Amino acid sequence: MEEWEEDDQPSYIDKLSPDEMKRLIQEEKEELEQYYSLAKSIKENSKAEALLIALEKGFEKLRMLGANEKAVIFTESRRTQMYLREFLERNGYAGKIVLFNGENQDEQAKQIYEQWLEKHRHDDKITGSKTADMRAALVEYFKEQASIMIATESASEGINLQLCSLVVNYDLPWNPQRIEQRIGRCHRYGQKHDVVVINFLNCKNEADKKVYEILSEKFKLFEGVFGSSDEVLGSLESGVDFEKRIQQIYQTCRTAEEIEQAFKNLQAELDEQIQLKMKETRMHLLENFDDEVREKLRDHYHQTSLHLNRMERYLWNLSKYEGAREAIFDDETLSFVKDHETYQMISQAKKQNSPNVHHFRFSHPLAQKWIEQAKSRELLPKEITFRYSDYKGKVSILERLIGKEGWLSLDLLHVQSLESEQHLIFSAIDTEGGQLDQEMCEKMFELPAVEGEEVEISDSIRNTLRRISEGQQEAILNEIMERASAYLDSELEKLEKWLQDLKNKLEKDIDEMTVEIEHLKREAKLTRNLAEKLEKNKQIKELEKKRNEMRRNLYDQQDEIDEQKDRLFEEVEKKLEQRTSTEHLFTIKWRIV
């Protein structure tokens, strides 16, 4: 919903007269009722039946490849997910299925999680984050016990499913980037078998066939070579924009000819967009990367490279410094040996199954020890020379600082309200009095550096850095207030909409019941049979009783929402009760060469 912003252009509906609107609404109501009757008449789910055939053929292919007989089935909703589990369990897959979604709150998931915690209570797999550990537990269960994982879109990112080489897109999304993410869970470096991808497609629907044609031929999503779609997908600014175009075609085209023409136009636009974007990207690479970096890109294009995210990189560098006397570090493999034990950064350790390798991460006791050791050290004011010339990459915002020097101070701001927040506040100036922004300061600490002698800080420099820090602290506190205000507005709007929806529904039901009561009263007056008259009056009393209950229910719902508003106000008031403290970490005299 957040990605899909509606256009502000007026629709044709705005131009209709009230009578035309009423007629169209009535026609749509009748059409929807026909769909409802048709849906109720369907006794067999042919798509689910086809899934059984797909799994049978898919597993047969996996046996030929010598791969694990495991499949991940992607759906668009939890309701479909639950239905498929029940259907497959009735058809030979009982006890072989695990669900994976954004909530993971079903009884099976809870049981798997508890067993996983018990199993790993003595090793370092437990991170302490319930969400991360729940995901790890479900993936491990899939690996060791289940044959089928039925997953929603939440499984398309952040988990490694290369133990599986059969992907079933039961619901095929229109967004090519989402499809790429799904397949990428299994089709990744380290996968030992070809990944079989089964897509469900309604061949009787002309538009569905055209969508699949574009996804397959233009975006090359189902090619045999890994990464063949990367270049093409990189040209898309947003898969959501592509989805919007498809949605527009579905809404406006009514004949096979219209659909054909609309998709031809879309394909022509995509061809031009893809070629232009690829040309621009190549140009930027050649203009902005130096020769050494370009050579490395060429050398490693078809190879796996060791990769750490920003926080892991910080941990690795800190560990090398703090553990220099205790361990032997190897940058090539991102591992180190301490007391005859081997530790490896978690990103790389996941690729190994050796029980002799410890997974090194932030939550590991050794990492915590080194972090606390670093935090407890007193940092004296010193001169630090940052060597941009030794840096392997390019940081454009720092290039103008080469050859310059100045002062930098770092403070840690603690903000305690309903939630606890911490913010690192850099205050920095150069010798000409120019102020450096937060991003510049952070990027500076990515560079190799040499520690110099201890330096004296004049009172004027201290005062200047303190004023900058206080200004940034005030800006952060204001931003927290703005967030609290936006949160309050958003939550109040949700409650108001909820109340209005309830009110509209109940009022509609009450109005319908009132009409029915009036109708029964007229019938009761006209009937001469005493028994029938008594029966109708009894029905009237029952309906009036129900109507009164519905009215009371409306008042109860209003009271409940008012209570929720009160709780919301209390929550926001606590956020406003900010307690702040500032801890000075260090001051340095910096120079970039």
UniProtKB/TrEMBL annotation:
UniProt-listed InterPro entries: Helicase_C-like (IPR001650), P-loop_NTPase (IPR027417), SNF2/RAD54-like_C (IPR049730)
MF-aspect GO terms: helicase activity; hydrolase activity
Coiled coil: 488-578
Record's keyword terms, sorted: ATP-binding, Coiled coil, Helicase, Hydrolase, Nucleotide-binding
Protein name: Helicase conserved C-terminal domain-containing protein
Highest taxon above the source species: Bacteria
Region (Disordered): 1-20
Domain Helicase C-terminal: 54-233
Annotated Pfam families: Helicase_C
